[in-house]
């Protein structure tokens, strides 16, 4: 054998340049990727906050409580509305009551003023009546004294007295009804505004007396003195209306009952009386019958 026999070589076979280039590129890419990853891991990363919303779970007890709360709130609202309405009604009622009380007070005050005025007027008329009668009596007494001192006893003074020429026969028919009624009231009280049956004022008595004969007279003395026709005081007949003052504005009236006498509701102190014409001479007379 030859001493130069072939011995297998232990060297790796040479790689081709193209394979080496490919491997070098791959290695570079891997190294670049690792470098970038290292850089990224070197800077601290911001932790990402995650929020998880948990929905409440309603059980039966909580639902019942919610329903009860809603019901209570509704009831409270209704109660508040009712209370507000009641308060408004109470306030309205108080306002109305105050207004009514004010009106009632004003009406009472007005009535009191009217009554006071009427009383003052009545007192004035009564005072005027008393003064007139006093003056008439004084005049009559003075005239009677003069006549009795200078008279010759022929009775000439009698003819000048009111009623001297009047009819003295008893009243009949309607006149009798008027006279009898008037005389039946003698002794009863005089009350301003009275129309019977227990008390009268002057015109109330005359009106009531004429009502017995079916005759309707005005209520006030002024109007009664304007009724019928005027008659002389020397020609009076039973049932004639006597008046004091001017006709149409008389302040007192009475009923002539014959015999030179009259019945009238004079004043609170005397009441209803029957008097002679000489007691208080009337101003005039009217005849309605």
Report on the architecture of this protein.
The chain is an alpha+beta fold. Among the domains are: 70-145; 163-287, endopeptidase fold (from Nostoc punctiforme), CATH 3.90.1720. It is built from 5 helices and 8 strands; from the N terminus they run H-H-H-E-E-H-H-E-E-E-E-E-E. It has helices at residues 17-42, 60-150, 173-184, 202-211, 221-224, and strands spanning 189-190, 199-200, 229-231, 241-244, 252-258, 261-267, 271-276, 284-287. Strands 3-8-4-5-6-7 form a 6-stranded antiparallel sheet. The radius of gyration is 65 Å and the shape is rod-shaped. Residues 139-168 have low confidence and may be disordered.
In one word, what is the shape?
rod-shaped
Helix content: 40-55%
* Radius of gyration, in angstroms, nearest whole number: 65 Å
**CATH evolutionary superfamily of the domain at 163-287:** endopeptidase domain like (from Nostoc punctiforme)
Element-by-element helix/strand order: HHHEEHHEEEEEE
Look at the structure and give the mean pLDDT.
Answer: 75
Number of helices: 5
Q: What strand line-up does the widest sheet have?
A: 3-8-4-5-6-7
Strand content: 5-15%
Q: Which sheet architecture does the biggest sheet show?
A: 6 strands, antiparallel
Q: Based on helices, strands and strand pairing, what is the structural class?
A: alpha+beta
Q: Tell me, what is the CATH class of the domain at 163-287?
A: Alpha Beta
CATH fold naming of the domain at 163-287:
endopeptidase fold (from Nostoc punctiforme)
Distance between the termini: 208 Å
Q: Give the low-pLDDT segments.
A: 139-168
Query: What is the total tally of β strands?
Result: 8
CATH architecture call of the domain at 163-287: Alpha-Beta Complex
